[in-house]
Amino acid sequence: MASDAGKAANDRCFEVSIILRIGRGGLQTRTCLSESKSGFATSASCDNGSDHLRPKPGALFDDLPLLIARGAVVDNPEPWQYCGGMRAWLMDSYKGVEELRLDEVPDPQPGPGQALLQMKFAALNPADAFLAQGMYPAKPPLPHILGRDGVGKVIAVGPGVENVKVGDTVGILCCDAGVQVWGTLAEKAVIPAPSLTAVPEAWSLEETAGAPLVFLTAWQALTQWSDPASPPREGSVVLVTGASGGVGVASVLLGKSMGLVVVALSRSAEKGAKLKQLGADFVLSPETANLRKAVSTAIAPKKIDLVVDSVAGPAFNDLIAMLGYGGRISVVGRSSGTVPEFNTATLFFRRNRIGGVAVADCTPDSAQAVWKEIVRRLDALGKRPVVDRILPFGEVKAAFARLAEGPMGKVLVGIPS
Q: How do the pLDDT tens digits run along the chain, 417 residues long?
């Protein structure tokens, strides 16, 4: 039972008191754990006294969580120390999410101003895949753990934490988790306490797990064109590319909450129908013949005031051509690759503007304020974040494959406690 991960955790032990009673072949086995200099020893005896396992000096009792999960009963506490480990999806290179591996690492510990979460759900984002390919500004030390979104239960807090307590179930707003430091694709994660938020009333854990990053991104994309940031003028027309994705769905919902006319682009008729249910005024396929004319006809006599684009690629030049006077494009992603033969002259005369979105600019205070407003708007609409599907923790690679296919909303991973 000894492991390098467990040994590495020796300097991160915490004291607990426990004796386990485990059903085995109809008998109750009492398993006692005692500390030795090199690790922890175990001894067990059946209630009828017919069996006795001698202590194994130096054996780290790494199987404790598994035994508890299988029904071990805590009885007659006696003091000992447990140096635990957690399962996590480790990124050892910048060769893509296909190279992730599931392994055990020492439990992280919260420092000042931090909280340790037992993760329940983690949500995937395209930025995770870009980071894993080395196509992201951040280059964290390896091995790294991806995952920027999620929901978990607070199981420990560091000094100075006052906004959450042990036992709280919380969501995660934008922070360095999954970017510069280990993230949520693990059984446990350390998160800055100011970036934690309560699960909104009447929201499910799954809805909360997948919402913050994409909704904060969509908020910035919609509001960044004024100072201070504020929603576009009511009645303005916003065109959303990749509208069935995480940021796309968030842009559609927030756009409707702001009183905007929403044009959503989606290749799938099934997803298009769902986007209409979410409130999109017009849904068109980006493969529509003469898309520019089709959009113009749909919104006439209005023009496109704002585009929220997560696609880029060859179609980007067509988006510029659709803009009205003073029209803007908020660039969120580039799922279709680079823009070929971009002609700056297309921005002339109509005073069009293009601007990038950087949700990492959020401070904990600003993220909390915006998130509160987002929740208020969704509640007023009677709408909730959309979850495409939830895959088991052991199927993270399949979850990323689903993300690459183009989901309807967010792809989540369920993490057993």
A: 333 333 333 333 333 333 333 333 322 333 333 333 333 333 333 233 322 222 333 333 344 444 444 444 444 344 434 446 899 999 999 999 999 999 999 999 999 999 999 999 999 999 999 999 999 889 999 999 999 999 999 999 999 999 999 999 999 999 999 999 999 999 999 999 999 999 999 999 999 999 999 999 999 999 999 999 999 999 999 999 999 999 999 999 999 999 999 999 999 999 999 999 999 999 999 999 899 999 999 999 999 999 999 988 888 989 999 999 999 999 998 877 788 888 888 888 889 999 999 988 899 999 999 999 999 999 999 999 999 999 999 999 999 999 999 999 999 999 997
Give the DSSP H or E segment for 255: helix 246-257
Strands 188-192 and 114-123: antiparallel
DSSP for 305-368, written as a single string = EEEEES--GGGHHHHHHHEEEEEEEEE---TT-PPTT--GGGGTTTT-EEEE--GGG--HHHHH
Residues in the chain: 417
Cα 198 to chain center, whole Å? 15
Asked whether 167 and 65 are in contact (CB, 8 A), the reply is no
What is the reported pTM?
A: 0.80
- Round to whole Å and give the CA distance between 320 and 158: 49
Non-local CB neighbours of 50 within 8 Å, separated by 6+ positions: none
Q: What's the burial of 54, exposed, middle or buried (CB within 10 Å: 0-12/13-18/19+)?
A: exposed
Helix, strand, or coil (residue 408): coil
What the chain holds in terms of domains, given with CATH numbers, is 4-83 (no CATH), 86-211+396-414 (3.90.180.10), 214-360 (3.40.50.720)
Angle among Cα 328, 329, 330 to the nearest 5 degrees reads 120
Residue-wise burial string across 282-301, b where 16 or more C-beta atoms lie within 10 A, e elsewhere: bbbebeeeebeeebbeebee
Count Cβ atoms below 10 Å from residue 407 Cβ, excluding itself.
20
